[in-house]
Amino acid sequence: MMEENHTSDFYANCMKYFDSLRKQGKQDFGFEDEFFYTMPALSEKLAIEK
User: Fold this and answer.
1) How many structural domains is the chain composed of?
2) In whole angstroms, how far apart are CA 18 and each of 9, 23, 43?
3) How many CB atoms lie under 10 A from the CB of residue 21?
4) How far, rounded to the nearest angstrom, does the alpha carbon of residue 32 sit from its chain's CA centroid?
5) What is residue 7's predicted lDDT score, i.e. its pLDDT?
6) According to the model, what pLDDT value does residue 36 have?
């Protein structure tokens, strides 16, 4: 359960980060690549644990 909270917090913080970048007209391609590569794996792990 604790890991799920960390994952939810991480996801929310990432969305805030991406939103702030968009507002500044910037992008962080390296982080976006990592984020979109790992999020499906994290989501699947959480679904299996429930």
Assistant:
1) 1
2) 14, 9, 19
3) 14
4) 9
5) 76
6) 83
